[in-house]
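Why do we bother with a discrete structure alphabet at all? Because it lets us treat a fold like text: something you can write down, compare, and reason about line by line. To make this less abstract, here is a complete entry for Integral membrane protein. Read it the way you would read a sentence in a foreign language you are learning: slowly, and without expecting to understand everything at once.
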Amino acid sequence: MVLMEVLGSALLGLALSAAAVRVLAPRLPSRKMVLVSGVLGALFGAYLTHFALGPGHNTLMATFIGAVLVSAVVLSLLLRPAHGPRRRPHRTPFSLPSRG
């Protein structure tokens, strides 16, 4: 059962990180780093969920959900801001522009 959790969560993390690379490529670092981070995040999420549920609970689906959630959090930490139009610098309230 534990082997199924490890292999399943690693495959889910790989699929999630591959989808992130495909959709958000300009906002992510190198492809290899994203793929490795997704898999490691999913493995850690599976371990954390399995540990939190305890030895008497063998719920494969709950472990997979925990793996996907932690992997998504790890991948979200890799995102960089989008390159869009910059806003003007914020002026303090009640300040007058200098004309000089």
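What the structure line is telling us, in plain words: The mean pLDDT is 88. Residues 31-53 form the longest helix (23 residues).
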